[in-house]
Amino acid sequence: MVEVRLNVNGTAAVVDVEPRVSLLDALRERLELTGTKKGCNQGACGACTVLADGRRIVSCLALAVQYDGREITTIEGVTHPLQRAFARHDGFQCGYCTSGQICSAIGMLAEHKEGTASAVTDHVEESPELSEDEIRERMSGNLCRCGAYNGIVDAIDEVAHGASHGASHGEKEPAA
Amino acid sequence: MRDFGYLAAPDVATAVREIRPGAKFLGGGTNLVDLMREGIETPDTVIDISGLPLTGIDELPDGTVRIGALVRNSDLAAHPVLRARFPVLAQAVLMGASGQLRNMATVGGNLLQRTRCPYFYDGTLPCNKREPGSGCAALGGFNRMHAILGASEHCIATHPSDLCVALAALDAVVVVESVRGVRRIPLTGFHRLPGDTPHVETVLEADELITAVEVPPAPVAVNSRYRKVRDRASYAFALVSVAAALRVTGGRVEEVRLALGGVAARPWRATAAERALTGAPATEAEFRRAADEELAAATPRRDNGFKVELAARTITATLLRLATEGSPA
User: Is B50 within 8 Å of A66 when comparing Cβ atoms?
Assistant: First the structure.
């Protein structure tokens, strides 16, 4: 067993784990922070996304021992306009991917703010505006089996640009 | 996952002293942890190198850019010098994996990725890479994703890296260290073709640690691009990818760099096409002719014949764009 000291959502936490225990399992099974979800458990779906020192990672491929001394933010530690925006735009159906989507979007917005390009940026030297294409590309590591992508993109777009921006995919109009 | 001993290496000297058969270096974990969970990699000891000070990106006096082995993919892609001088490199990285994985995955680990051949991952079927001598299920199986160049009757797997394709085009050099000292290996000679030992994937010795990748100066790379064709618009491995750099003077190709991904067990430097193009008119017809020359050696299997035409068209389109647009912004 190895003693791992984490700072999770601003609180110091110590867990004794075998080296093979993932950060995801340490959070869920030892610290009882079950907001972070286990989906594929192989780094493909993004449901387990958390922030490590502010950067988004998939916690299923992270061994807890490798994150000794790091600051981890899970959905339990998040208060962000994205949460209301997801609700407003129906950015989910079953909700299983949502905590990962929101942690990922927080990390993604920070990356964009730093001026990073993406795979759909025309020239990699540019720091592009966060268009719908850019949002979709930058969020492609988070799968939603319910297919709520249009709502997810709208929610992120609203938080990035304000409510008046862009074409909505279906924000509900008040009933006539 | 089988349990294992864990050592966090405090410095390179300790890491290379402690490595031995049965032990594995662990960087970002995005490939190794997955393979360990699948029972394909079963180290008895993991030497965690993620805390080593190999995270710098430095311009050396001669213009070479030295990229530390533990630079995360996202930091590589965001680096202003690389974006300006070697756009193909930053672009290739951004076209691989996802934002989360790029924040974890390292340069050294990227070089050592194992194949994504589904038969390699399926412990119930034969695979010469996973279990030498057991056979190759892909040969007679569903092999649409597999190699068309440099394969053998023992293995037709491809190397999954995008970064390596760009590094191959840029004549990058892999710096490795062991208790015996430091040596430098050209990236194009780093990965081995399968032959009859597909489980031996690189020329790296078992006790060697990758410490850096060096990219020598290449003014041609200012006008370079990475184009990746895949089954999904994002977050998928390449069917075919092309790393290209081009300088045209007076309507003729003065210098060209070309490498292919998704077609072989190693990033495929297209030397035949480069030879055919150098000095030739920079026209679509010449680009296509050079692509065909490179692909003349292709040996497609039952399901992947489409890759030959796809590669030819992707090479042609990428070079044409570089020729007509010139340098990116």
Answer: yes
